[in-house]
Design brief:
256 residues; alpha+beta; Glutaredoxin; Glutathione S-transferase Yfyf (Class Pi), Chain A, domain 2; four-stranded mixed β-sheet; 4 strands; 9% strand; globular
Amino acid sequence: MSNLTLVSHPLCPYVQRAAIALTEKGVSFERIMIDLAAKPEWFKAISPLGKVPLLRVARAGRDDAILFESAVICEYIEETQAGTKLHPADPIERAQHRAWIEFASSILGDIYAIETTPDAALFERRREMLAEKFTRMESVLDAGPFFAGARFSLVDAAFGPAFRYFDILDGIADLGILANKPKVMAWRRALAERPSVRSAVAVDYPARLWQFLEKQDSHLRTLMQPSPVFSAAAVPTSRNRGEPGAASSGSIAAGA
């Protein structure tokens, strides 16, 4: 049994960051899914902010340690686990990478607004903001295939979950957010093909996300057409590893 347990939600992009980092390191870990709409008592007792991810670290002869906030968890994984380094060795480059991870978090905030706002004008402003942010990314990317060239990093772990949203958004409307950005698109494709990024979510992730979007009283919802592919029937109700709380609902806002 692993001494690391990642407390998760099926849709949370911040959970995905931690899962990607653990997988890139080749670390064995357990994963528990919870329903953030009906948080179990054991989760409330150990999560100061009521958010995922949490990383529970078993310690011999001592109480388990609980880590929260995805950035903290990923830094802990980088500092304590063997395997490929996910941060640059140079202090300046490492600090720059951390800054771009924060930039990725701001992109997730814009995506959440696009998913949930009922205001068409705000929707358009956030769409424009996202397009501008990815234009900035186009200007800083080099030859690829990843953010720092040939080496996969924690910046890639942060952007992989963000790009995943566009697999669904692109099927709803032509938002033009990633248009005319060949380096960004090549990066998106490289991350989509990365085994750690692919395995960070379950196979029913697209159906779950579609179901979440259908429930929103949002401008985006008015652009959506019924999808037999992503029907509610495609989303199973299940409990993971005997822990309380089925994973059934949640959003970007539920993680950090």
